[in-house]
Amino acid sequence: MKSNKIKKAVLALEDGTWFEGFSFGAEGKSFGEVCFNTSMTGYQEILTDPSYRGQIVTMTYPLIGNYGVNNVDVESRKPFLSGFVVKEYCKHPSNYRMTQNLGDYLKKNNIIGIEGIDTRALTAHLRTHGAKNGVLSTSELDPKKLVKQAKEHQGLVGRDLVKEVTCDKPYHWTELPYNLDKPGDNPNAQMDLAGLTPPEKRIKIAALDCGIKYNILRRLTAEGFDVTVYPATTTADVLLASGAKGFFLSNGPGDPEAVPYVYETVRKLVDSNAAVFGICLGHQMLGLALGGKTYKLKFGHRGGNQPVINTRNNKVEITSQNHGFAVDPDSLDKSLVYQSHINLSDNTSEGLAMKHKPVYSVQYHPEASPGPHDSRYLFKQFREMVERNS
Amino acid sequence: MPKRTDIKKIMVIGAGPIIIGQACEFDYSGTQGCKALKEEGYEVILINSNPATIMTDPEFAHRTYVEPITPEVCRKIIERERPDALLPTLGGQTALNAAVALAENGTLNEFKVELIGANLAAIKKAEDRQLFKEAMLKIGLDLPDSLTVKTLEEGIGFAESNGYPVIIRPAFTLGGTGGGIAYNRMEFEEILSKGLDLSPIRQCLVEQSIIGWKEYEMEVMRDLKDNVVIICSIENMDPMGIHTGDSVTVAPAQTLTDKEYQRMRDASIACIREIGVDTGGSNIQFGVDPKTGRMVVIEMNPRVSRSSALASKATGFPIAKIAAKLAIGYSLDELFNDITRYTKAAFEPSIDYVVTKIPRFTFEKFPDAEDILNTSMKSVGETMSIGRTFKESYQKALRSMETGNIGLGADGREYVEGRWQRTGSRKPGKLPHDWVDAQLRKPTSIRHFFLRQAFWQGYDVDKIYKLSGIDPWFLNEVKDIVELEKELEKATTKRGKLKAKLPEELLRRSKAYGFSDPQLAFLSGVKETEVRKYRKALKITPVYKMVDTCAAEFEAFTPYLYSTYELGKSSFLGKDTEAPPTKNQKIMILGGGPNRIGQGIEFDYCCVHGAFALRADGFEVIMVNNNPETVSTDYDTSDRLYFEPLTFEDVMNIMDREHPKGVIVQFGGQTPLKLAVSLKKAGAPIIGTSPESIDVAEDRQLFGAMLRRLKIRQPDNGIAMNVKQAKPVARKVGYPVVVRPSYVLGGRAMEIVYDESSLDEFVMKAAEAAPDKPILIDHFLEDALEVDVDCVCDGKEVLIAGVMEHIEEAGIHSGDSACVIPPYTLREDQIATLRKFTQQMALALKVKGLMNVQYAIKNDLVYVLEVNPRASRTVPFVSKATGTSWAKVAARLMAGKTISELKAKEVPYLKHIAVKESVFPFNRFPGVDTVLGPEMKSTGEVMGIDHDFGMAFSKSQMAANSALPAKGTVFVSVKNKDKRSVIFIAKRLSDMGFKLVATQGTAQALTSNGMEVTVVRKVHEGRPNVVDLIKNGGIQLIMNTPAGKGPRSDDFQIRRTAVVYNVPCITTLSACAAAANGIETLRKKEIHVKTLQEYHSTT
Fold first, then answer.
1. Which fold has domain A8-152?
2. CA B1030, B1036, B1038 angle in degrees (round to 5)?
3. What ipTM, to 2 d.p.?
């Protein structure tokens, strides 16, 4: 590697922190909230997760790009994030499924990447001082100027990012989870050791897309659901008239309070006694719809090792998480709602369920991708609930 | 679930002696386990025969049995102690096998002892090859095609229909003992029949070869609530076909996508559930086809393993400690993560660095063993290193190996004529392609260095991949290092100052790639200290990062640190912010690095005791070491742990950060000792015996002068620099002579030479082992008694810690001989002389701390053989035998206390006898002779303790897995010289009812003395012969003093057969006599067990 051939890049935060490294993705300048993810695998899924809209994502695992990028481990139509920060970018990936290297992928998708910086120092800084607005640039390289620009950048709070990632018209989803053990087959389950086959009886449901991850859709089809995905702005009336027997509320980016049109829709769905299941932003939407409040976490939960306790059986699930906001459980009416899941590390709300209605949600990502599969049962539970309710 | 209150007393089984495949990682896990159980208020009963362990320190259990780990002895302890539960998962395969035996023979039921951690069914399901296969198929996991066989014929059927190579895996053996890869029918029959013999249930798995596939390991934990977490994933750089203990491995897995990783995680969780390991840790191995991604499960260890020790050190998650707490009923979500303090143990560590483990081999000790790696483990130790990139981590690990490497190449050494030689050339010379191809194809202990050679010779990644099977990801990383080495080689040819040769940007990049100062100094043609000065002037210094289990997501409180070099400019540059040094009074202890023969757990024991003592005295103790198997690298042994290479550069970097008040180099063996002078020169405050005194003991002339002054005798000796000089020196000191290189460890290349004709050969070997260093030639005292004396000294006063009489005569390396405390044949006046000499020398050398002396006594004259003014291998044994931690005393003396201040006292009179016996790795090295000599070959030790010598000796043999028979047939074959002396021993055995079998010559000597002897043929006399007799189980004890060495001799075949069939084989006359004593006692008395606490309360 000849250093002089490599283009420089700078990451600067609003509080004056900056790092000079090397560019390995697209060129230009991009603003976002700088956050970190502690997953050791799954960068491709993270890159394509629409929930990162508006964020510059730092991977705490230092070697990124090791297994390249392939055509199937994708979570949406394209990467939506604002920038990608790693310690060492691997330009010589090795994996039997890869089709290209990470740098080329970022360039093609116009995402700026920076490598060669002390990501641990950055992570510790964000942990101590909270998530910060920042700018990633390969054009302007003066840290002082960049810090100033980062200060002027508007943060995530109050911004509606959902409209930037949702689909523009309804579509029908049919794809099943990809099966590593039977590539090329129309597989019945992704790495389900028991060889799960989807139930034959299809049930029609609607998924409200605030930036939905494909693996949620794949898990829903694996449960025998016939899924139609609707734009986030779709009204409750349209959804209820669609013939769907259940409603899924998706994950998505940004501040939950900035998308009142979504939680208004959710409130109506709940009022109609429909079966509802929400994940991540969907959990926050449900919380708000039920009259609760949300707040911003200091630096969020992003990773694949978050322990969550299931209050119903007192067992621990290792979960995949990606959220910067949380539902305040004390703001909810305890006669209506109970906490089904609680984060073992900081006791934040991880799941809620209504006592007398077929409605529940989780803050974390049972669809994994990336992350562990401990909570996959929630999809099966949804199927059972919809069946009971219809 | 809270902890169980229905059990109060828990028995823990340790792993016994250090052997290949079962090293000090089980002391680490056992110590953690005992500590955890004690902390929870349980009464802990421990059995472990290994005195060099920390876990057998009396304070780690309530009742400590240093007794042989056999089902019979365990039963006696259970009978005596009546424990409520038995925890068998912390003591390796030894403990697991003992537990299975105790369950199957009804002992556990009889005494109502509950197995906790793993139940019998689970152990069997995991260890029995057929049951395991069925279990895995049941949960939908794929396995390589295989067949469980109990006979040779069944195996051949499989091999013939599947084709070769075929892997053979015996059931219930450790570290792949007896396993192997067969490439043809002949090999197959040989390995399989041996494997069936070695398997306690005569069962082997013969398996389709997946050599060349990617190999992974997962460390899994489960609690009684069925919570399961993955602690660590490990990827082997060396592909399938090489035992994971012998592979270079990295954590975490590098080349798996999340989909592939999660599939492996799901499989691991399904596996631990199906096998039914109730609580604790397990290790599961997988193979992945690099072309199709097909994943197969290879095997599972339902217990804490070597890999779990590695995973604990790699992640900061204390697997053994948590396993112990889960076993008594806690669930993961009830336990806290020590490192972050307020988060729970129910999580999966996320790491933000790369860990590289490199195994340490000692093939040089066994020249007759072939350096080929396969599924049977051969390495004796390992080193681990941590870096922020693979390149940094890999090069740090390479320079931690204690093999003379300072990284990957750039050291002026080349592989010429079958060995590494210092040629001084800046780049490797071209070697023939077919030869390099062969080196890449052949898995050996040195293959990794040929990756560099190949890249220098223009090989591309694809070609090397095809030859070696090492994944292209790793090869590209190595290539990056070599490319930078080439860039450096070019840049440093520039004339002028360092600034011209090593511009700042290049230097910064080199350090981030893990290049060491000595590598850069070599290429630049300057001294290491100059590079250091230049580097520091440019402020290119490492930053220290914490191993915190969580990738910095939470604040960590345990200063477990590693160094790294950051590349780029930033607002953080030069800020070394993590776990900032304190202003406390600090003492730094340098550890011993990877275990190898000659430097093992005994030195780590001393480091740990040093840390405990100084912490108790209020010092902040900083530990520096890179051996993941040890207690010293447990984050709670010291106040601060630096997991770093033990080189001048790496130690000085820590010095610059911490500024300790004192540095201790005399506990960690040769590794820190050899840094003493350069560290002192650089200003490090070395405490304890001065490096100058250490040098006096090592330097022939200075040492000779001192002895003359003290009027202490030593064997006639001289030094030679080459073969030519050796002859006159040898003639002058008189044959036989001992030839050895200076400044080496464990008697490396040491030989006894009886005549001039063989002198050249051994002088040459000695010269090879330590080039450019003088060769020492001593007169050899034949048939002399050897004695070790350990003492502590504060510079003014001396305390004798122990006088150890060797059982074997002088000439056998002290690390290989058995020895006894207190002496069993020495007279009071002889002991008084030894004490006096020891005191005189300790004072003359101004020793502060420990000193060890080796004496020989011949014709009533006492000779000094060697003085080591530092911790020696015998310290733990002496401490266990006398009930005093001499290493703790020594540490306090080094820190400035005096003996009188400490009120330390000698242990005047022991009512018991302790015998140390050595344990050898001969079963790992086919083709290697088992005769003992001046070159050390043992990997570990055991202690037998009782009230009489015979029983203590018997126990030691039992513990060393060569139990003396109480009846049966003895085969006697001794060299002419010994014939007269063996008569007495044979007579005793015959009187006890043993049948005697001998070859013609020995038989004659015995019959003419009135004994009844069956004559058996020697090997070359046709069949059936003695070897057939041994194989057929017709011999229970072999007494064979070697008349000839080398693979062609008859004796050799007898001894090798004895190893394979595990028949005790004694090769010295003195040990034969001791054995007769032992057998006599065994026949008269029953074995009794007693705790160390009891032994020491009565002395």
1. Glucose Oxidase; domain 1 (3.50.30)
2. 75
3. 0.97
